[in-house]
Design goal:
single chain, 422 residues, alpha/beta, N-utilizing Substance Protein B Homolog, Chain A, seven-stranded mixed sheet, four-stranded antiparallel sheet
Length: 422
């Protein structure tokens, strides 16, 4: 059994030195196998909001600008560095060049973390960085896009081929910005918007929130935190009161919540997900809407459609697992996990899921295929492959939302109708 005094000392130490905690998070992330958001959630448990926000800003800021910060580090210190020293220098450079923290804090506090044998090195590199600040900022526009915007070169090349140079540069610039926090109101249980909530002119019922989430409104189900790009697939599906609707890959439930909101809760909704551990949160999020005609079940749509669900739904929403290439601003380490081979692997899985879920659409019904990818291989190409082998379906409409154009996450949605005469 852990001793309460030891637990208190550990929490006090973590609370008093968030930079050390951020350094530990970066080192752990560098070892692989864990997402940055998961690390922050786990390691920041019990921290004050201020210190939690600092750790998050430093860790995500470092990973969001990783290639540029590594470039600066290489300019300042030639030769190989041990991992712990490398991450400590990157942490200090992030504070100086990304978060623009005062020099005395960014340098002094970072140096104090270093073991005695490394303090001279860390101090010298960071002091030199402050002296060369203007030089480094002046060279930034001349760096290659992959370094300037901290994106793997293969992905830059792929986007250049697909979107052209101008669009790609705008996309890369968008992805290194800190994402805003958006929320959608629940029309079944609407909140009183706060004075600093900024309504979105192009998306009714959506707000941009200030720093610090309105936790009371969240827990009461009056708002749901999501990105405005998630509305496209729901609007395209256009569920109607009285319809039987399937949200096939539903967790954590944002799109189900939206469909209930737009129909006054008057649809008969089945929400499924492949992962059983995600179902409790899915149920809770749907419960908060106040709607009642809801069922939640586990099902992996890479497997065949159960007989009782075949041709049983008026409308199916299918938001498939994808590369996250449209949400790299928000999921900052996804760009470092993604490999070129993933697009082919995911496209095969997506086509399999689409084929299985399509069996749930009744004759005359409809399905929306959706991703948070902006890559053709996962979007239009999957739909085209599906239609080639399913003549009873037709494409009615599709839309690709590019992040820098939308000023929101990227997304793709395609509306497919099933003929009623097969």
């Amino acid at each position: 059994m852990s001793h309460p005094c030891r637990a208190m000392n550990r929490n006090t130490s973590r609370e008093s030195n968030p930079r050390r905690l951020a350094w530990q998070c970066l080192q752990r992330w560098g070892q692989g196998g864990v997402f940055a958001e998961t690390l922050i959630e786990r390691e920041c448990s019990g921290l004050s909001p201020r210190n939690r926000a600092f750790v998050q800003a430093v860790v995500l800021g470092t990973l969001r600008n990783l290639r540029w910060l590594e470039h600066l580090c290489a300019q300042l210190r030639k030769g190989k560095l041990e991992d712990s020293a490398r991450w400590l220098l990157l942490l200090g450079l992030c504070q100086l060049f990304v978060l623009h923290k005062p020099e005395h804090a960014a340098v002094g506090e970072t140096v104090s973390l270093a073991p005695a044998r490394l303090r001279g090195l860390v101090n010298g590199v960071l002091r030199n960085a402050t002296r060369r600040r203007d030089e480094f900022l002046a060279e930034l526009p001349q760096l290659s896009p992959g370094v300037r915007y901290s994106t793997p070169d293969w992905l830059v090349k792929r986007w250049m081929a697909e979107f052209g140079e101008e669009e790609t540069l705008q996309l890369l610039a968008w992805n290194v910005q800190v994402p805003p926090v958006y929320a959608r109101i629940n029309p079944l249980n609407p909140p009183q918007p706060g004075e600093n909530w900024q309504p979105l002119a192009h998306a009714a019922g959506w707000f941009r929130l200030p720093a610090g989430l309105p936790l009371e409104e969240l827990s009461a189900g009056r708002i749901y935190v999501a990105d405005p790009s998630t509305r496209y697939c729901v609007e395209m599906l256009a569920p109607q009161p009285g319809e039987r609707v399937l949200d096939a890959c539903a967790a954590p439930g944002g799109k189900s919540v939206a469909m209930l909101g737009t129909t006054g809760g008057q649809i008969r909704l089945l929400a499924t997900d492949a992962e059983s551990h995600r179902l409790p949160q899915l149920r809770e999020n749907l419960r908060r809407t106040g709607a009642t005609a809801i069922a939640v079940q586990q099902h992996n749509w890479a497997e065949p459609c159960p007989d009782e669900w075949k041709a049983a739904f008026d409308a199916v929403l299918l938001d498939v697992p994808c590369s996250n290439s449209g949400v790299l601003q928000r999921r900052v380490d996804a760009r470092w996990r993604l490999q070129p081979s993933e697009f082919e692997r995911l496209a095969e899985l997506q086509l399999q899921i689409l084929t299985r879920a399509a069996a749930a659409v009744r004759p005359g019904g409809r399905l929306v295929y959706s991703t948070c990818s902006i890559d053709r291989a996962e979007d239009q190409a999957v739909v085209e492959a599906f239609l080639a082998s399913h003549p009873d379906f037709s494409l009615q409409n599709d839309y690709l939302a590019l992040p820098h154009r939308e000023q929101a996450d990227g997304a793709y949605a395609a509306l497919l109708y099933r003929t009623d005469n097969f």
